[in-house]
């Protein structure tokens, strides 16, 4: 077990070491004055988690209860393994949509096989996260760049919101991608259910009013910012309950679909008991989805946990978070749930509501169990359209075009990465989309370094400084061409660098010495050195001698492993000025 | 049409422009004194191409004649489109093995369907190369690093040589990967054909003696190096003919397999006439193989063409080579051949034998046609074991462990790239292997830049120079921590950089000013800037002010697009010294 960091920072000394190692520091040092905050946060988060759990289970194609089970187990487990004090774990919109995409080709939503596959997917995802944590691969999410993360979130959110529009309007409009949605659109329009549509749209409007303008209003009326923000998250719940009650008291002659009688708790149908009834081929086809869902969930968890920890001067250990999330997913699989992760919205609510330790989350789990027990019969009256409205409200916040604008303004290539990932998700779904995103981020980085900047430099009069001849008034010598290379040299750009410098050489036909200034070259690879060696021989054939200057320590170390330096007529010069003093014809004055 | 460069460098002015545009410069300016070289080279290359064509067709699972057809058409076409003066085009070992790997799942080798698919594959490959050339994507092969290219060649060569061992020893030992070969090994050993084995092994030994020690001997006896080298390439042919003649004159009671009666020329069964009998699914499944075969062929062509052109002070245009190779493959498809490319061995022979222009290749094609006409009946007596020996001799040269040693010595990561690509090809075949290679090259480059070097710097006494405190005797100020970052900042490494500097800050608790020296940062992306912005706010919370110095022009331009610079309390300093003069407490003397 990794050691536990405590909010107070002092290690516990009261219990025998072996037991102590299993009890998190925050528990060993729990202070009574934290309890009020933890308690109030636990209640508010439970109020948020119940409708979210039901809605995300529906999104994943699972019975609504699965979403609640997946909220209970992980919350209890996270307290023991997590390193964040305020992270709140449970089902999330993106991972739920990815779960549906992964399972749709394998079984019919709602079937026993589907439940079993969902639990297996959760189990595999948890095992993979634990494996990553064990090998300390907490840095894995760094292969995704910010525009790719943003484009992925926005694309998935839009896809989820569009996918829920059918349930909101009372028609069967389904599809994993915008293409399928577009194809199914005409048929869906024909089957619109008028009263569901009216009910759903008014529900959406009322819940939106409760979430946004109402919380603004509270803020203006003098309620503290954090409290107003929280109210915005919680207020849609009473609106939803009121609307459901209204519909239930009316004679439901309008045939607006409700959740209906829920099946009894299926805590027994867990992944563990059902695993032997699965064939190996199904499990194999779940491996890649499990990995991608695990990574997407971890990415979301670590991002929110780190940003909140930083604002509270605490730290979060990425590798411990991997282990913790892995354990949470195992717990979810065992109770028959679905993939879980930390979520932005609920973690912010938890923090603002005063949570001090993971006790808040553990108490939330207890409230959810009580609610399950007391409210189960009432859930039957919950209209599906309102759950769809919940999902649409949650995902609409994630579609931010101002992110695209900012990325584009900074560098159009970052904007392209945003757009390509966004479009990729819309066209291929979140599962292929996230893989595509990794490829796009890397391809753009390579594109950037592939056409490097080089500058012919000259001497700033009476100094040891050498600057770009195009930007400064400098002195040059026709016999010596001095070129600064502003990029690392590696297989993908070395040919371009050589071509660019050859072009410069043809424009300076008097050059007999070529000086490469490597002050901005931080690394050089085998392919680049071999290309330089070949080029050095070609230049020698043309009567031009190649020299190096300002080679950095690590690059020099690398070059010493090969024989390139032995081919040079002069060892690398320590500075451009030293090189110019040696290489320039004697009659020129290169002293200061 | 792109303009043609001529060996003499002057544009032609004798013909009407429209006709002239279709006639390559070298034809318009052909000098009589080039003819002797072209003629002698054409004969020697034809002698080399005939056994190679037959052998590589067998390797691709095609009738031997397909290899000869594929040598004729492309050689005639290359003269009109190519930009290299000495490139020799035809079937190659690696692309032949890739052809077999691509077609094996789709049809039985030797069947009419197989021939049709081979011609279609060649056609698609040619069209793709032309498309790449049209869009000027000649730089496409730069996504492969040198160790990856070397590991790919060595792995494919070993796989080809192992695959031919069955034919050499007279047993049916087959397999696309080392795993399949290993599984089939016991059965193959049981069916060894003793007399074929003895004949094949002696043939291999004699041909090897003719190729290597004999040419060394000639060199020692005073024959010019180039001539001795050429003799090494050509001598195995008479040995092969002699052995085949020997076998034919003996009563063949030993049942050593020969090519047997060859089917009549199938110039009619071309891709064009057969295309409409192919289903779309087959054509679709050929798209990716066609792309990879095209790229592998182009990679080999451009490498050898550019290295020879450089040694002769000529240039080769990668985009024109793409178009030329594309046309060559179209020609090969039309005559019912197989994918073609420039080849290292034959292009070197062509050059050393005195070729001055592509006329040498065109004449070779004519000799091959004559040979086909005159020698066709005799080919029936050629033992398959000797063709296998030809392939094994050609590929054995490509397996160079000294390349691995050199790459490893330079940087163990380049060695790993070599080994991983080599192993990947052996385990998955050349087709998946080349795709794997691209991934490995990029992953290693990212790995390299992911853990960048940073250095805390101090002032070299009485100077404006600042150096690494670990490597030099320098002066520092406790209030100011100056850190130089030696890598471009982007999404994959920014978190590591911040963590490293945070560690330095915790070791210098008195620091109130943090100065980042960006002299070696050539680019910065959106993700990195956003991380820096968040970090700047966290540092401010801790009472530490962030400053920048020595920001390069292009990086400064990029930073101006966002609002990061506005957050800073002081604009970026022009030099580290200027920053230290401003930021250090007044009592310290920072004048020179």
Instruction: Report the uncertain regions of chain A.
Output: 1-12
Structural class of chain A comes to mainly alpha
Strand fraction band of chain A?
under 5%
User: What is the percent of helical residues of chain A?
Assistant: 55-70%
Largest interface: A-B, 55 and 55 residues
**Structure annotation, total helices of chain A:** 25
- Give the oligomeric state of the chains in this entry, treating copies of one chain as homo and distinct chains as hetero: homodimer
Number of domains of chain A: 2
- Mean pLDDT metric of chain A: 84
Span between termini of chain A: 64 Å
Read across the widest sheet of chain A, the strand sequence of neighbours is 4-3-5-6-7
Record field, number of beta strands of chain A: 7
The largest β sheet of chain A comes out as: 5 strands, mixed
> What overall geometry of chain A do the principal axes of the alpha carbons give?
elongated
In short:
Two copies of one chain form a homodimer. Helix content of chain A is 62%, strand content 5%.
Entry keywords:
homodimer, Transcription Regulator spoIIAA, 2 domains, elongated, disordered N terminus
Task: Present the secondary structure layout.
2 copies of one chain form a homodimer.
Chain A: H1 17-20, H2 25-28, H3 35-59, H4 64-81, E1 89-90, H5 93-103, H6 112-134, H7 146-169, H8 178-190, H9 194-211, H10 213-220, H11 225-234, H12 236-249, H13 271-274, H14 280-311, H15 318-334, E2 341-342, H16 344-352, H17 359-379, H18 384-396, H19 401-410, H20 412-450, E3 454-459, E4 466-468, E5 480-485, H21 494-507, E6 513-517, H22 526-541, E7 545-549, H23 553-560, H24 564-567, H25 576-583
């Amino acid at each position: 077990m990794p050691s536990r960091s405590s909010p107070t920072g002092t290690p516990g000394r009261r219990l025998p070491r072996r037991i102590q190692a299993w009890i998190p520091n925050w528990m060993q040092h729990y202070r009574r004055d934290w309890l009020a905050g933890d308690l109030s946060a636990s209640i508010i988060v439970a109020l948020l988690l119940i409708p979210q759990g039901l809605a995300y289970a529906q999104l994943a194609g699972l019975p609504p209860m699965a979403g609640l089970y997946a909220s209970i187990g992980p919350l209890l487990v996270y307290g023991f393994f997590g390193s964040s004090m305020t992270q709140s774990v449970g089902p999330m919109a993106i991972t739920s949509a990815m779960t549906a995409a992964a399972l749709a080709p394998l079984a019919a939503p709602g079937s026993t096989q589907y439940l079993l596959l969902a639990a297996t997917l959760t189990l595999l995802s948890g095992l993979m996260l634990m494996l990553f944590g064990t090998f300390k691969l907490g840095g894995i999410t760094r292969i995704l760049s910010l525009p790719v993360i943003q484009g992925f979130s926005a694309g998935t959110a839009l896809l989820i919101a569009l996918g829920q529009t059918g349930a909101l309007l009372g028609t069967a409009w389904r599809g994993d991608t915008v293409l399928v949605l577009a194809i199914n659109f005409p048929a869906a329009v024909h089957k619109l259910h008028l009263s569901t549509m009216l009910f759903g749209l008014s529900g959406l409007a009322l819940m939106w009013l409760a979430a946004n303008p109402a919380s603004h209003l509270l803020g203006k009326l003098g309620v503290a910012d954090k409290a107003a923000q929280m109210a915005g998250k919680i207020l849609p719940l009473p609106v939803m309950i009121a609307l459901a009650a209204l519909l239930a008291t009316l004679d439901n002659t309008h045939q607006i679909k409700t959740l209906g009688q829920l099946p009894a708790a299926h805590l027994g149908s867990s992944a563990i008991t059902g695993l032997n009834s699965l064939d190996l081929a199904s499990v194999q086809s779940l491996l890649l989805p499990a990995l991608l869902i695990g990574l997407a969930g971890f990415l979301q968890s670590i991002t929110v946990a780190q940003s909140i920890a930083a604002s509270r001067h605490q730290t979060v250990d990425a590798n411990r978070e991997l282990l913790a999330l892995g354990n949470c997913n195992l717990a979810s699989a065992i109770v028959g749930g679905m993939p879980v992760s930390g979520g932005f919205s609920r973690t912010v609510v938890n923090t603002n509501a005063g949570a001090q330790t993971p006790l808040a989350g553990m108490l939330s789990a207890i409230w959810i169990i009580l609610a399950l027990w007391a409210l189960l019969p009432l859930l039957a009256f919950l209209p599906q359209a309102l759950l769809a409205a919940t999902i649409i409200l949650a995902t609409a916040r994630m579609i931010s075009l101002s992110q695209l604008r900012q990325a584009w303004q900074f560098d159009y290539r970052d904007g392209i990465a945003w757009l390509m990932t966004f479009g990729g998700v819309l066209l291929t779904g979140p599962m292929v989309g996230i893989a595509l995103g990794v490829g796009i981020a890397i391809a753009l980085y390579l594109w950037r370094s592939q056409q490097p900047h080089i500058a012919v430099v000259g001497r700033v009069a009476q100094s040891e400084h050498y600057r770009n001849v195009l930007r400064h008034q400098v002195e040059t010598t026709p016999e010596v061409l001095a070129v600064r290379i502003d990029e690392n040299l590696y297989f993908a750009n070395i040919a371009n660098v050589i071509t660019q410098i050859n072009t410069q050489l043809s424009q300076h036909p008097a050059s007999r010495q070529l000086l490469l200034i490597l002050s901005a070259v931080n690394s050089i690879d085998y392919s680049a050195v071999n290309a330089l060696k070949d080029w050095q021989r070609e230049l020698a054939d043309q009567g031009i001698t190649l020299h190096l200057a300002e080679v950095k320590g690590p690059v020099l170390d690398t070059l010493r492993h090969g024989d390139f330096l032995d081919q040079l007529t002069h060892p690398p010069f320590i500075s451009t000025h030293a090189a110019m003093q040696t290489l320039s014809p004697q009659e020129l004055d290169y002293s200061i």
